[in-house]
C-alpha cells in the first residue's frame, strides 16, 4: 500500500476556499441570499393588493331631520351618529372627546332626549329629529343657555361646551335643574377638563330660574 492510498481524511485547512471539498463560504452566502430574496418575493405575493380588498357595498338609507332640515342619507351602517353629524353633514359643533361614552362632549338631542352620539349608530335613528348645538340659536339670537354660558363664564377652552349646553338644555326640560346639586348630579356625564363647573352650574341655574 502506497502513501497515497492512506490519504488524510481531515479537511485540508491550508487549501484555498476553492480547493476545499464541500461548498465554499462564498457559495453558502450566495445561496442564503437567494433563499432570502425568494422568501420575500413569495411573502409579498401572499399579501392582497389594495385593489383586491373587497369593497364595502352595503349601505343603508336613513332619513334624519337635523336641526329642522330633512336629510336623506346613504350610510355605512357602522357609522356612529356622531361621525355622520361631523363628517357626513359637516356639523362639527358636536365634539368628539373620548368616543366611548365617557365625557359627554358629543351630547345631542334625539327626539328631545339627550344622548351621547358617539355610542349610537345613525341607522338606529331613521326618521328621528336631531338637535345639535348649531340648531339652538334662532338666527343671530343665541339660545338663552348659550347666552348664559357667556355671561357666567361657563367655559375656558370651549371643547366640552357644546355638549354641556345640549345637556343643560335637556336637564332643564326634564325638570332636573331645581338646585345646583341636582344639576351637578344630572349633568355628571359631561366632563369639563378645564374645571369650568362653577360657571356651567351658574348658567344652568340662571336659565332654569327663568323658565
Ligand atoms: Fe361621546 Fe365622549 S365623545 S361621550
Ligand atoms: Fe375646556 Fe370644558 S371648557 S373642557
Main attributes?
alpha+beta; binds FE2/S2 (inorganic) cluster; Ubiquitin-like (UB roll); 211 residues; 6 helices; five-stranded mixed β-sheet
General description of the model:
There is one protein chain. The chain contains six helices and five strands; from the N terminus they run H-E-E-H-E-E-E-H-H-H-H. A five-stranded mixed sheet has the order 2-1-5-3-4, covered by helices on one side. 35% of the residues lie in helices and 12% in strands. The protein folds into two domains: 58-135, Beta-grasp domain (Ubiquitin-like (UB roll), Roll), CATH 3.10.20.30; 137-211, DNA polymerase, domain 1 (Orthogonal Bundle), CATH 1.10.150.120. The chain has 211 residues and is an alpha+beta fold. The protein has helices spanning 25-46, 81-88, 144-151, 161-174, 180-186, 197-210; strands at residues 60-66, 69-75, 107-110, 113-116, 129-131. The chain is elongated and about 95 Å long. The chain binds FE2/S2 (inorganic) cluster (2 copies).
Largest sheet: 5 strands, mixed
CATH topology of the largest domain: Ubiquitin-like (UB roll)
Helix content: 25-40%
Strand content: 5-15%
Number of domains: 2
H/E element sequence: HEEHEEEHHHH
> Which ions, cofactors or small ligands are bound in this entry?
FE2/S2 (inorganic) cluster
State the shape: elongated
Q: Please tally the helical runs, counting DSSP H or I stretches of 4 or more residues.
A: 6
Multimeric state of these chains? single chain
Distance between the termini: 123 Å
Number of strands: 5
Mean pLDDT: 86
SS-based structural class? alpha+beta
The CATH homologous superfamily of the largest domain corresponds to Beta-grasp domain
> Numbering strands along the chain, what is their spatial order in the largest sheet?
2-1-5-3-4
